[in-house]
Amino acid sequence: MKEDSYKVKEKIELKNFASEEVIKKADKKLKKISKKLAKLQNAMYAEGKYSVLLCLQGMDTSGKDSLIREVFKNFNARGIEVQSFKVPTELELKHDFLWRHYIVLPAKGKVGIFNRSHYENLLVTRVHPSYILEENIPSIKSVDDVTDAFFENRMERINNFESHLVDNGTLVLKFYLNLSKEEQKNRLLRRLNIPEKNWKFSEDDLKERKLWDKYMFCYEDLLNKTATEKAPWFIIPADDKDTCRYIFASILLDQLEKYNFEEPTLDGETLAKVGEFKAQLSNE
Predict the structure, then answer these.
(1) Contact residues for 134 (Cβ-Cβ < 8 A; gap 6+)
(2) Which pTM value belongs to this model?
(3) CA–CA separation, 38 vs 103, rounded Å?
């Protein structure tokens, strides 16, 4: 698998990225990678020098929840945290737009997953600019003030935010799950046709689906303007779930292996007493 074929390295057009790719036995290959990732995560947790922030973005039904479930099932629960960001609360709206994300960043040694992330502030609010008015920003008097320049500024602030995180030991990796409109229709119909899946369906899904082209414009713009060497974006074909999970996990494994995490060793004095400690326990 060529990781670079999924990485945003220059100006891109989303239409040039496939939403469908099928890798044979991807589910079986994922199991092996998942175990390797868990081992790496244990070493990172013990070392306690780095943290990892994974940002997952994609249209509704793109498979973010199931990807998290399948890729990270072997992880030690102590070392992984999943955050899902819904409509901002009253308290969150009283702070700047990055505040609610900053306060749940992963501590050193941990993997943090943002299931939807700070990038929603460049997507939902751009498609629905009236939402910005709820933030009570002094310079924004009406929807007319929510211009392209406003979002350009937000993108620059996000780039600075992520650069700061990386400089302080957080590995930031961002993934856009590239789902086709046709496959989204199939998955929405599945939610309606299978009674056990009905609870996942919302009428709002259909309303947002009508704005598909606007969302694609916003995604393409942010992918081009927030893909950096420090915090890269990867565009993953999402129409086939098994393949999507395998590609995601493969890229993550490759990125983590670069850091050579090492579990700390016992200090000399303690190491010299290991035999004594064993004897104490054995003779209890």
Answers:
(1) 88, 93
(2) 0.93
(3) 25
